[in-house]
TrEMBL record:
One of its GO terms (cellular component) is membrane. It is a multi-pass membrane protein. PANTHER family: RHOMBOID-LIKE PROTEIN 11, CHLOROPLASTIC-RELATED, RHOMBOID-RELATED PROTEIN. Keywords: Hydrolase, Membrane, Protease, Transmembrane, Transmembrane helix. It comes from the Bacteria. InterPro entries: Peptidase_S54_rhomboid_dom (IPR022764), Rhomboid-like_sf (IPR035952). Residues 50-183 form the Peptidase S54 rhomboid domain. It is found in: Membrane. The keyword Membrane applies. This is Rhomboid family intramembrane serine protease.
Length: 188
């Protein structure tokens, strides 16, 4: 008889935390989503520090959650296998912190929540997975061109509630993480 295997502990735990945050938001009629799982400029407090990292766990509704989680569950496990759980957790934490701080600095009147920055970090990281010393993968160039084009178009011409700038931040974090990891693993 086959058993289920918790094959990507960071990605699966992240998924479960996001699901828990979504359910808590529904049970609290949005209170926890706004006060724990969203980031916005506010006075420095313990809750603000929680929100700086916790905003990546919050989602506005099931559609928002499903859109992010499907991509997370596709792109995340291979990246966790390649780079390791600890390194991926660090990448997720840094991406959350950087996007949270930038949100507060550049968009003080708006609220940010959702895992799309983390998802875009994973997408750009996956495009670097086959990188060899001294070369840039064509998949990176194509992914970056399509991704950047789509996000810049959305920033300029689409009026919606999507934080396209934070998608770019997540993509930049994934690219930086991938190049740093490749540099560490390259022979001297």
């Amino acid at each position: 008889m086959k058993r289920l295997h918790y094959n990507a502990p960071v990605i699966l735990t992240f998924f479960l935390l996001c699901l828990g945050a979504l359910l808590l938001g529904a049970l609290s009629r949005g209170w926890t989503t706004l006060h724990l799982f969203s980031v916005y400029r506010a006075p420095l407090s313990p809750l603000f520090l929680v929100r700086l990292l916790g905003h990546v766990l919050g989602h506005a509704d099931w559609d928002h959650f499903l859109g992010n989680m499907l991509l997370l569950l596709v792109a995340g496990p291979p990246m966790e296998e390649k780079y390791g759980s600890r390194a991926l957790l660090l990448g997720i934490g840094l991406t959350a912190l950087i996007s949270g701080v930038l949100q507060c600095l550049f968009f003080p009147g708006t609220v940010l929540l959702g895992a799309s920055g983390i998802v875009f970090m994973l997408i750009m990281l996956s495009s670097l997975a086959g990188m060899r010393s001294g070369s840039i993968p064509l998949t990176l160039v194509l992914t970056a061109a399509l991704y950047l084009g789509q996000e810049v178009y959305a920033i300029l011409f689409v009026s919606d509630q999507v934080a396209n700038f934070m998608h770019l931040v997540g993509g930049a974090c994934g690219t930086a993480f991938g190049f740093a990891a490749a540099r560490r693993s390259a022979p001297p």
